[in-house]
Design brief:
The chain has about 230 residues and is of the alpha/beta class. Helix content is about 40%, strand content about 20%.
């Protein structure tokens, strides 16, 4: 899942960006509201964590601007402003959640999991496709009775495919969703990670879940496909 994190306290920004990345999120971070607005207008995010008091533009204004433009990215306000009036203002402006500093890392990660599920097809923390099960909260993957170890990026890619199961996703859409603006890897990164997933998810199973659709991209298919595909 792709996250935007806007926080002007540089130490906190670095700590949370690192933690979210370790949890498997693709994170773009910035230090002021104007940059946050530009990011949100330029890419598709599964969630945004916005500080309220930021240089150039406060979090409330950023939220108001994106909602006026029809951008529905779920937003969590992370702030030291704890008055009831502030919380009401943020929620009325279209925020989905509000977390007061100081906070526990465990609670923040739990709230981010809920936040990112808002953009998916399911409100549950457990995603399934045939005999494949992904537990977002426990960060575990099973196919049948076998537990599968995935890297953070593999987990993100599999989760994205599951949220969009039976939908063809182009390589460009996958890359834009899973990798952040700072990524400078090879042009075939999506193909490489799809290959990694196939070896771990499909190898040894008669039913292949991860499919290549010629000329279009990839999909996670739960049933027999009605179009010609390359396994």
């Amino acid at each position: 899942m792709r996250i935007l994190f806007a926080e002007d306290e540089k130490d906190l920004n670095a700590i949370l960006t690192k933690k979210l990345t370790e949890e498997g999120y693709s994170v773009d971070s910035c230090f002021d509201g104007a940059a946050a607005l530009e990011y949100l207008e330029s890419a598709e995010y599964d969630g945004a964590i916005l500080d309220v008091m930021m240089p150039k533009m406060d979090g409330f204004t950023v939220l108001e601007q994106i909602r006026k433009k029809g951008i529905k990215t779920p937003v969590l306000f992370l702030t030291a402003r704890d008055s009831v009036q502030d919380r009401v203002k943020g929620l009325d402006a279209g925020a989905n959640d509000y977390l007061i500093k100081p906070f526990s890392m465990e609670e923040l990660l739990a709230r981010v999991r809920v936040l990112t599920r808002l953009t998916g097809a399911s409100q549950t923390s457990v995603l399934t496709a045939d005999d494949l099960t992904v537990d977002l909260a426990a960060h575990t993957v099973r196919r049948g009775d076998r537990e599968i170890a995935l890297s953070a990026k593999e987990f993100s890619l599999l989760t994205y495919l599951l949220y969009n199961k039976n939908i063809v996703l182009s390589r460009e859409k996958i890359e834009n969703h899973i990798w952040n603006f700072d990524y400078e890897g090879g042009t075939n990164v999506v193909d490489v990670y799809i290959s990694y997933l196939r070896k771990k998810i499909d190898e040894g199973h008669e039913t292949k879940l991860i499919r290549t659709v010629r000329g279009s991209g990839y999909m996670l298919k739960c049933e027999e496909m009605s179009i010609h595909d390359e396994k």
